[in-house]
Design goal:
Number of helices: 3
Strand order of the largest sheet: 1-9-6-11-4-3-2
Shape: globular
Oligomer: single chain
Helix content: 10-25%
Order of helices and strands: EHEEHEEEEEEEEH
Strand content: 25-35%
Number of domains: 1
CATH architecture: Sandwich
CATH superfamily: Jelly Rolls
Largest sheet: 7 strands, antiparallel
Radius of gyration: 16 Å
Distance between the termini: 32 Å
Length: about 190
C-alpha cells in the first residue's frame, strides 16, 4: 500500500485555502457525527447499473437551500456544477442531482470503480477517520491510500479508479458533482 511519496495531483487536489469546518457543516445541515439523519432521510444508493451499493444518499432539496451549501456554491460558482439537471441522470440507478449527502453503511466497502457519469467532484468530508484508495488501473493490486483531513478536496472520480475499505463507523460526506475535465479543475483550483 502506498501512503507517502505518491503524486496525488492526478487523483485529487486539497483546498486548504477554502475555509471549512466539518462540525459546523454537519450542524448547519442538521446531521449528527454518528450519521443519524436529524433532518434529511437517506435512501439506498443504486449505481449506474441499478445495483445497490454500500452507501445511502440524500438528495433532499432542502440541503441546497441551507446557508452553508449556498455559501460553498458561491465559492465554486465558476465550476461546472449542474443542480437538478435531468440529463445527468443514469438510465438506471439513483442518478446525479448535482449534490448529495452520502453515508456509508457500517462494515461495508465500495469496490474499485470509476464514476460513470461525472468526471469530477468536490468532496466535503464530514466525519473522521475516512480513507479512499486510488488505483493506477483496474488491474492494479496496490492502492494509493488517501486519508481525508478536514479539508475540501477536488477528486478525479471519472477517470481514476477508486475504492473504499470497510468502516467501523458510518462515513459521511457532502459532494457536489462537477462536469469539468481534470485539467479544468486544476486551473480552477488556482483561482480560489
Amino acid at each position: 500500500m502506498h501512503t507517502d511519496g505518491w503524486n496525488s495531483s492526478e487523483f485529487l487536489i486539497e483546498l486548504p485555502q477554502v475555509e471549512f469546518n466539518p462540525i459546523e457543516f454537519l450542524k448547519e445541515i442538521g446531521q449528527s457525527e454518528m450519521g443519524h439523519a436529524d433532518r434529511y432521510e437517506y435512501a439506498a444508493y443504486l449505481n449506474a447499473y441499478n445495483k445497490p451499493t454500500s452507501q445511502e444518499i440524500s438528495y433532499h432539496g432542502g440541503l441546497i437551500e441551507t446557508a452553508i451549501v449556498k455559501h460553498y456554491l458561491d465559492i465554486f460558482k465558476d465550476f461546472n456544477i449542474q443542480l437538478g439537471t435531468p440529463e445527468n441522470n443514469h438510465d438506471y440507478g439513483t442518478g446525479l442531482n448535482g449534490w448529495s449527502l452520502i453515508r456509508s453503511r457500517r462494515g461495508a466497502s465500495l469496490p474499485k470503480h470509476r464514476d460513470a457519469k461525472r468526471p469530477t467532484c468536490i468532496t466535503f468530508p464530514l466525519t473522521f477517520p475516512q480513507r479512499v484508495n486510488f488505483w493506477e488501473s483496474k488491474e492494479s493490486t496496490e492502492p494509493y491510500v488517501y486519508e481525508y483531513k478536514p479539508v475540501i478536496i477536488l477528486m478525479n472520480a471519472g477517470t481514476k479508479w477508486h475504492s473504499t475499505d470497510p468502516v467501523d463507523q458510518p462515513r459521511i460526506q457532502f459532494q457536489l458533482d462537477c462536469y469539468n475535465t481534470w485539467d479544468e479543475m486544476k486551473e480552477l483550483a488556482k483561482t480560489l
